[in-house]
Amino acid sequence: MGLTEKQRETLKRNNEESNYVTREAAQDALYLLMKEQDYEEIRISDIIRKSGISRSAFYRNYKTKDDVLRDHIGDLNSLVLKTLSTDVRSNWLSYIQTIRKNREKIELLIHAHREWFILDAFNELADYSSGTDFATVLPHGYIYNMIIYWVKCGMPGTDEEVVDRIMEACRINAQIMLSGIIPSENYAKTISSLKQ
User: Fold this and answer.
1) 22, 118, 123, 196: least surrounded by Cβ within 10 Å?
2) CB-based contacts of 162: which residues, under 8 Å, 6+ apart?
3) What is the DSSP string of 112-124?
4) Which of these three, 38, 63, 88, is where a domain ends?
5) pLDDT by residue (tens digit) across 126-146?
6) Residues 121 and 172 in one domain
7) Of 63, 93, 115, which residue sits at a domain end?
8) Do residues 71 and 30 lie in contact, with contact meaning Cβ atoms separated by under 8 Å?
9) Gap between the Cα atoms of 66 and 50, Å rounded
10) DSSP letter assigned to residue 4
């Protein structure tokens, strides 16, 4: 006798919840270990022991310790994506607030020389369907560098001031980039849309 549809849904939900708890425990354990020792010295068995999860549960969710960090950065991006609106400024504010709330973890990423996982996460959000619209991904690199530099400098300024700097950098870079790419008749319209 097979499972009913309701039983299958319950089983699926329980598995998803179990995987979520496992992932969260592994992430927390890894960050705790990163406070205690160099990232390169941490082994998967250390994460398993610190988290209290089973080896099979770890490997059901991850292959490497880098995967644990990437997953956490993806979770941070998911938090931001849930708050996205059509207002670019409020989107950046949400992102900066998320970075600030997770300052210690971002600093640990930098110390472990894994800060580029943030750039990877940015790039995963890109739409590569056009194949030639480089303008959509160009900002990722300089915004990533601004954020990492900001964290390394101790996160000076208010969230609003940081967003002002990011928005200004976006406008300046867009003006430079677009001046040679888009037809002159569309240039003014594109630049004015960036100022909104």
Assistant:
1) 196
2) 96, 150, 155
3) TT-THHHHHHHHH
4) 63
5) 666 666 556 666 667 877 888
6) yes
7) 63
8) no
9) 17
10) P
Judge contact between 171 and 177, C-beta under 8 A.
Answer: no
Instruction: Look up residue 185 and give its two tokens.
Output: 């008749």
d(CA 40, CA 99): 24
- Tokens at residue 99, please? 């970075």
* Other Cβ atoms within 10 Å of 120 Cβ, number: 14
The rounded distance, in Å, linking the Cα atoms of 33 and 42 is 7
**Residue 69, class by beta-carbon neighbours within 10 Å (0-12 exposed, 13-18 middle, 19+ buried)?**
buried
User: pTM of the prediction?
Assistant: 0.73
Q: What are the residue ranges in the chain where pLDDT is below 70? A: 1, 7-8, 10-12, 14-15, 126-139, 174, 176-196
